[in-house]
Amino acid sequence: MNVPLLDLQAQHRAIKDEVLPALQAVIESQQFVMGPQIAQLEAELAKLCHAPHAVACASGTDALLLPLKALALKPGDEVITTPFTFFATAGTIHNAGGTPVFVDIEPGTFNIDTAAVEAAITPRTRAIMPVHLFGQMAALERLLPLVQARGLKLIEDAAQAIGARRKIDGRWRMAGELGWVSGFSFFPSKNLGAWGDGGMITASEDEIAARLRKLRLHGGAKQYYHDEVGTNSRLDTIQAAVLLAKLPHLAAWSARRREHAAYYDQGLAGLPAVRTPVVDPCNEHIFHQYTLRAERRDGLQTHLKSAGIGNAIYYPVPLHLQNCFRYLGHSRGRFPESERAAAEAISLPVYPELTRDQLDYVIDAIRRFYR
User: Fold this and answer.
1) Closest of 115, 107, 111 to residue 135, by C-alpha
2) How far apart, in Å, are the Cα atoms of 301 and each of 116, 136, 152, 312?
3) Inter-residue contact 365 to 303 (CB < 8 Å)
4) C-alpha triplet 100, 106, 107: angle, nearest 5°
């Protein structure tokens, strides 16, 4: 049996009768850049995230970079984040002119350790950028008082968490709702994926939303009139059309991922060599990834590959140990939980179209490896 890590062809077969007419409508209109689907998608995403504004852009990376550019970071300005995440989280801080300040993660959820964040704040801190890793929100209720008391900005890296939510003070709050801004990715592998790159920024204030709309269009609200130096970061109309066709399916897809995760949890229960994902009881996880901690992880990966089972290691080298961030002066052992996660984590197939037979095959393969 073959079980890919992700099967986008299976997804397409199920919804092609909805997606293809949406694409045809864009082709017929010939409005490939900033067509009406862009504003429609922005409105729908703002509604989903309970956010006042949403601003489409070219990628999930730009969805973090543009707000950081808007902060006008100066040399020495710091942004606190996690070293156990995709490169863009810290790469955008550097490219916006700031200094990434890493703090360790919680061993259970893989999300940023909020107590460590508070200890890392200095007079040079400008923002805090938590990551809602693998589809589970970080504990924003512990970070919001920190930014409010010190006049900092909270930037949610929600690239993997569209539709995730967290119960705070008895009320469900969405990923993208509570930050000054939040960045989402529509990379094809995401729960809501485009047919190429794409991103979205939700914003809590009128002023920053207006600024971001200009920054993505070379710094001007009107063509050929530039208030500042921006860049070209427009979401293609075709991508917006694809996303609009997929969006009504998102909640059901994420629910299906939760069902698969629960089935894995049950099937792998009692296996001491693996630790299934820890879900904070305050969270509704969307399981962008189903990530185990596994003994002899690399051997397990080889075994799964030989059995035709897709898998991935997110992330094998934490950011503080990457060559490009050597200038920050971190050495091995500085962030032990992140380093431990990098050595133990392995993600399994969890996409909605998986069959029960495929799930059983993955569970049996893991149990055979540790037998």
Assistant:
1) 111
2) 32, 24, 41, 8
3) yes
4) 125
Query: Which ranges in the chain are annotated with CATH 3.90.1150.10?
Result: 249-370
Nearest Cα to Cα of residue 30 among 243, 236, 200, 245:
236
| Mean pLDDT, residues 265-270 taken together | 97
Pairing of strands 283-284, 165-168: antiparallel
Instruction: Name the fold adopted by 8-104+111-247.
Output: Aspartate Aminotransferase; domain 2 (3.40.640)
Q: What is the pLDDT of residues 308-324, one digit of tens each?
A: 999 999 999 999 999 99
pLDDT for 13: 97
How confident is the model at residue 294, as a pLDDT?
A: 98
Q: What is the pLDDT of residue 222?
A: 87
What fold characterizes domain 249-370? Aspartate Aminotransferase, domain 1 (3.90.1150)
Tell me the average pLDDT across 71-94: 98
Residues 6+ apart with CB under 8 A from 153: 71, 126, 127, 128, 147, 180, 181
71 secondary structure, DSSP code:
T
C-alpha of 54 from chain center: 16
DSSP designation for 285: -
How big is the chain by its Cα radius of gyration, in Å?
Answer: 21
Calculated CA dihedral for residues 297, 301, 303, 309, nearest 10 degrees: 140
Tokens, residue 30: 């010939």
* Range list for CATH 3.40.640.10 in the chain: 8-104+111-247
What digits encode the pLDDT tens for the residues 96-132?
Answer: 999 999 999 999 999 999 999 999 999 999 999 999 9
